[in-house]
UniProtKB/TrEMBL annotation:
InterPro entries: Histidine_triad_CS (IPR019808), Histidine_triad_HIT (IPR001310), HIT-like (IPR011146), HIT-like_sf (IPR036265)
Location of the active site: 107
GO molecular function: catalytic activity
One family name in Pfam for this protein: HIT
Gene source species: Modestobacter roseus
Positions occupied by motif Histidine triad motif: 105-109
Entry protein name: Histidine triad (HIT) family protein
Ranges for domain HIT: 7-121
């Protein structure tokens, strides 16, 4: 099943020790092992869903919880407040081959702590 084959299922199960930033009953946020910015946190659902599209179709409430968790991480990391995106941050969800997704357990990237360029390439 997915929990033995999937890297982030193994993180959620505690088989790989993550640097945890925030957790709820249904979500887990931990630092990326190869940070691309001073703050680079991954927010995942504890349940296995391969992509943002699969998650949104199967459990839209959980997709909304994941978005709220990303906002809470941004606030916790000092990148935003509830009322203002200052100094600012970026939310990225890579999906599929052209999107550059490499881990097939949906995850939101919370990036910030420096000026980020656009377009991302
Ligand atoms: P994707 O390219 O699928 O959107 O992002 C996968 C992310 O997972 C990458 O940013 C990569 O650095 C991160 N990653 C891969 N393996 C591990 C790991 O074992 N632990 C953590 N914390 N991050 C990982
Ligand atoms: Zn998984």
């Amino acid at each position: 099943g997915p929990s033995s084959d999937c890297l982030f299922c193994r993180v959620v199960a505690g088989e790989i020790a993550p640097d945890v930033v925030r957790e709820t009953d249904r979500t887990l946020a931990f630092r990326d092992i190869s940070p691309q910015a001073p703050t680079h946190v991954l927010v995942v659902p504890r349940d296995h869903h391969p992509t943002i599209g699969a998650l949104t179709a199967a459990d839209p409430g959980l997709a909304a919880e994941l978005l709220a968790a990303a906002q809470a991480v941004a606030e916790q990391e000092g990148l935003a407040t509830a009322g203002s995106p200052e100094p600012g941050w970026r939310l990225v969800v890579n999906s599929g081959p052209d999107g550059g997704q490499t881990v097939h357990h949906v995850h939101l990237h919370v990036l910030g702590g420096r000026g980020l360029t656009w377009p991302p390439g």
